[in-house]
Design a protein that fits this description.
This protein is an all-alpha fold. The chain has 7 helices and no strands. The protein is elongated, with a radius of gyration of 16 Å. The protein starts with a helix and ends with a helix.
């Protein structure tokens, strides 16, 4: 669902952004960010590695969600629905994984809720980008699109 929302709403914004250089730079930054995340995830095993990877993913998803709203309300709403489902399943996975190593249910709930708060934090990070020129916004959208599709 995330792929469909990204392809239908964000990709046209990137293509029509009119700046191949910004698109290339943003896309390359997205690939670098996702490869770095996968590299870090491999270094840390167990719950800490999983929490770091999931937290980074949710923060980037929030950034992309904020960028989608900058691109247009329709794009933002479609991506909100898609990311809600993704974050729901990530929350269930995190809860299940933490249940195997953490005894305190309150700690599991607090950790999962804290991860969920990274989504609106990512949206807030995207807010200042709305004031940038369209070519720069296209670069950020390219970053977000690549980040969404590579995870």
């Amino acid at each position: 669902m995330v792929f469909a929302a990204a392809a239908a709403e964000i990709l046209p914004q990137v293509v029509h952004g009119g700046s191949p250089a910004a698109t290339l730079i943003g896309g390359a930054a997205g690939v670098a960010a996702m490869l770095s995340l996968k590299s870090l995830e491999g270094r840390f095993e167990g719950p800490l590695g999983m929490l770091g990877a999931v937290g980074t993913d949710i923060l980037i998803d929030g950034l992309v969600l904020g960028l989608a709203f900058i691109a247009g309300a329709k794009a933002g709403i479609l991506l909100t629905v898609a990311l809600t489902l993704e974050v729901l399943f990530l929350g269930v996975t995190v809860t299940e994984e933490l249940g195997e190593t953490v005894r305190s249910k309150a700690r599991i709930v607090a950790t999962t809720a804290g991860l969920g708060l990274l989504l609106p934090a990512g949206v807030l990070l995207a807010t200042p980008i709305a004031g940038f020129p369209p070519a720069v916004i296209a670069g950020f959208l390219s970053f977000g699109l690549i980040a969404l599709l590579n995870w």
